[in-house]
Design a protein that fits this description.
Number of helices: 3
Oligomer: single chain
Radius of gyration: 38 Å
Structural class: alpha/beta
Number of strands: 8
Helix content: 40-55%
Order of helices and strands: EEEHEEEHEEH
Length: 218
C-alpha cells in the first residue's frame, strides 16, 4: 500500500492510498461523508487509462459508476470491529510470559573511600542476569471482562445492521431505477405509437382534402 501524489505547475492532486490489483496501481480514497468530487481519483484514472477502477470507501451506497467502485464505509468498520471482540475475549484467559534482563555492575562502585574507578565493570565477574516465567489472570475482573466482550459484540451487531440497511437501500434504489427505466421505455413506445398515429391521421386528412378538391373541380 502506497500514497499517491501528483504535483505540477498550477495543479496538485493526491489520493489516499495506492494498492496493486492484477499488477496495476489502483487508487483508494476514504471519505467521511457520502459526497465527494473525487477529482484526484478521476485525474489519476485519466492519466493511467489501464487502471481497471478506483475504489472509494464512504457513507455512499454500494455502487459502480464511471469506473469508480463505491463501497460503504460500514463494511470497512465491520472488518475493523470484528477483531475487537477477540481482543476483549482474550482477557478471559490466563496469560503466560517470560521475562529477563542482563547487565554489568562494578564491585568498587560503592567504595567506602569514595574512589569509584569502575575498573572491573566489563569483567565477566561483573555480568549479572535473571530470567523466569510469568503468569497473570484477571479472574477477579471476570464480570467486567465479560461485559466488555458483550459491548464489543453489540457494536459489531450494530454495524452489521447498518451495513444491511445500506445494502437494502442500494438494492431498493437499483430496483426503483430499473422500474423507472422500464416505464420510460414503455412511455417512449407509447409516444412513438402516438407519433405514428398522428402521421397517419395527417396523411389521411391530407389525402381526403386533395380528393375533395379534385372532385369539386371536376
Amino acid at each position: 500500500m502506497h500514497f499517491g501524489a501528483r504535483e505540477s505547475r498550477g495543479s496538485h492532486a493526491e489520493v489516499d492510498f495506492l494498492i496493486e490489483i492484477d499488477g496495476m496501481p489502483t487508487p483508494v480514497e476514504v471519505k467521511a461523508g457520502a459526497r465527494g468530487a473525487l477529482k484526484s481519483m478521476r485525474l489519476f484514472l485519466k492519466e493511467y487509462p489501464k487502471t481497471p477502477l478506483g475504489i472509494r470507501y464512504s457513507m455512499h451506497e454500494l455502487s459502480y459508476f464511471d469506473q469508480i467502485l463505491s463501497i460503504p464505509l460500514a463494511e470497512l468498520q465491520i472488518a475493523t470491529q470484528s477483531p475487537q471482540i477477540g481482543i476483549a475475549k482474550a482477557d478471559l484467559y490466563p496469560q503466560f510470559f517470560l521475562f529477563g534482563n542482563i547487565g554489568w555492575r562494578s564491585s568498587d562502585a560503592n567504595s567506602v573511600s569514595g574512589q569509584n574507578s569502575l575498573g572491573d565493570i566489563f569483567s565477566y565477574k561483573s555480568l549479572f542476569w535473571n530470567a523466569g516465567p510469568g503468569f497473570n489472570w484477571n479472574i477477579l475482573n471476570y464480570g467486567r471482562i465479560r461485559n466488555s466482550v458483550r459491548v464489543e459484540d453489540a457494536r459489531l451487531q450494530q454495524l452489521v445492521v447498518t451495513y444491511k440497511n445500506t445494502v437494502l437501500n442500494a438494492q431498493r434504489e437499483v430496483e426503483d431505477a430499473m422500474v423507472a427505466f422500464t416505464r420510460s421505455k414503455e412511455e417512449e413506445r407509447f409516444l412513438k405509437d402516438s407519433v405514428t398515429a398522428a402521421h397517419f391521421c395527417e396523411n389521411f386528412t391530407y389525402n381526403n382534402l386533395v380528393f375533395y378538391e379534385n372532385y369539386s373541380i371536376n
